[in-house]
Amino acid sequence: MAGRPDCWRDSEVPGEGCDAPARAVFLLGFMGSGKSTVGHALSRQLEWRFEDLDERIQAREGRSIAEIFRDSGEVGFRQAEHRALRELVEERPPSSPVVVALGGGAFVQAENAALLKAAGALTVFLDAPVDELWRRCQNEDEPDERPLRRDERQFRQLYEARRSRYMNALLRLDTAGKDVESIAAEIIASLRLQFKLPQKDLGEEK
Q: Residue 19: its pLDDT value, please?
């Protein structure tokens, strides 16, 4: 199958064929899975830029995530989230490969999963036992206004509800007991990502 000109997927990675080298990796998973931490490590190892989707949402909306939920409810937040993701997917400058950390509920939304699939995006589910995820959230230094981080029963229920959707990612990695740099290196090896994309592959005009 001929690769799509806007495809992000390496032709050797399982899935639809694509002639272009991968230029974006999207990390997904539940709270405590380490999406941002692993994302920063992965971007350093690859020398790609890093984007946190929640930070982009807050910049676009001029409000914190907590304020968006408070003022607009979850429906309003999900709409803002989808707009921010679509903006990111559609801009994707070919000369600037990117690692993106998605919010915990982003990939669960059917329209977001469909958007990433249509773009041939590389999606990685960072998984861990729910007990470990809960412990990680309790050990975080920064305060968090989300009630799920204080209600263990609801935390577990939501994890179980979302996990089947997370499993639709191209790659699942168990992060239990692994350090951040090792997880990033495993992603690079599993997806056969290229360091410092060569100039001839950056889509520059001849």
A: 46
